Amino acid sequence: MKKILKYLGLPVLMVGLFWSCEDLDVPITTQLTPEVFPQNSTQYIQTTGPVYSAFRGEFSFSWWWSQSLTTDEAILPARGGNWFDNRNYIAMHFHDWTADNGIIGSLWDWSSKVIGISNQTISILNQAMPAGEEKNTLISEVKTMRAISYYMLMDSYGDVPLDTVYGDFSSRAKSSRTEVFNFIEKELKKAIPNLNAASGVTTYGRPNKQTANALLAKLYLNAQVYTGTQRYNDCIAACDQVISSGLYNIESRATYLQMFYPTNGPQMKEFIFAVPYDPSAVTVGFNGQMYHARYDVPRSERAKFGLPFTPSAPRSTLPEFYANFDDANDIRNRQWLTGLQYMNDGVTPVRVTTTKKGYDQFYTGSDGGAALTYQVDLTPNIVPRQNLTLFDLGNDEIAWNMGYRNIKFYPDNTSTNRNQNNDVPFLRYSDVLLMKAEAILRGGNETLGQTAISLVNMVRSNRTTSTAWSSVTLEELYKERCREFAWEAWHRNDMIRFGKYEGQWGYKTNTDTYRRVFPIPTNAMVLNPALTQNEGYPN
């Protein structure tokens, strides 16, 4: 969404200059101060841009890695040493990560930076803007972004420090998960009256009233996990606010896949809050990219998708997760690449020419250098043929074709680099309906004439031509969430709530319950001596 990103795209560095020019030892002829910027509505909105740029920074990297690779949804093994990366990725699969894991460190650093930039932006707007509705709305939007970031931090690490004051760099001890939960709830409730009631182009990429209500629903649905107290009726009430707004609808079976295309955006009827991406956007100080095609498309299918680069293709799903896609009439099956591969005409085979040894590195025949052409066949199982200890599949065609691949965020062949134009949803309307259904199944009250089964069928009727369900259990609802939100970074959250996170899948056997939260990263504890390590992890 180029126009949106340009409108919000004031460089991140600019915010850091607002209050820091007066101590320079050289004469200053031009100074960015509150007296000259921000001074009008456009500039006020631009001032909030760094918050959204920062949020985009690691949303499709450390957030995705931590929420998906730790589950049966995705795995990223090494292939001939490629993607071993100090064991960062495969440790997520085995649940044996440490406080020095790079993904866990990046997740903490990123979410903390978004919170810090939000605090700075709120301080700037409080000083620069005149009192009124516009000020209340902009500050409430930024506070909602801060609440989202605190939700991610609390969900991932449990007890975390609470810091809402810009310029206070003193060490802060952790607040309890319940205290952080209560802070997020209070912030969202205070923000809702001031947030924009509209959806679509005018609010796209920024939180509106229903963003806050949908996040409240997510908070309440997981309250038993976070605080030990169930809040299912509160979850239902928050869902009802979104439903009653009349702003959103379920995309039809014909448009489900289009929700995730490079051409998606504010026209998508299900997007409550999405993160806009633009291959040409520069995010100073952050990654800010979305590389799904790079990670998910097989190397052999560059031509099929018309990509300007050869994808790395290191990650795939596991057979246990793919088993949920067992309805032949379900449109969601089409987000996967499986089995024998064909070009987009569905007829021409995708073929690779290599050697016998290049196809199978363990081939022992004397003609290993002989040419071999084969049709690409993606296989479901992940087998560490080269080295079990390093979890290395090998560096041959057999290894690179292991694992079914997800292309929900369809490859963007219009981009001249690896970054994609696909916006990524964080909260969708189908999630609201399925959260309400789950809250009812867990003991909440039916409202608005809606039952758990009617809510589930509202989603399913737009996904499959199979007969509607006559009843639904929590286990069936869990599988429906697997189908609906694959590759959208909610699966860890779901597995923990459904008591499945300590299960066994792939090669993972660790059942430690303390790993429901990540360790406080080593670097964070060095920077903030008041932090203590989470229970179960070594200090």
TrEMBL record:
This is RagB/SusD family nutrient uptake outer membrane protein. It is found in: Cell outer membrane. Belongs to the SusD family. Keywords: Cell outer membrane, Membrane, Signal. Residues 86-221 form the SusD-like N-terminal domain. Its main location: membrane. One of its GO terms (cellular component) is cell outer membrane. Pfam families: SusD-like_3, SusD_RagB. It comes from the Bacteria. It comes from Flavobacterium cheongpyeongense. Residues 397-537 form the RagB/SusD domain. The keyword Membrane applies. InterPro entries: SusD-like_N, SusD_RagB_dom, TPR-like_helical_dom_sf.
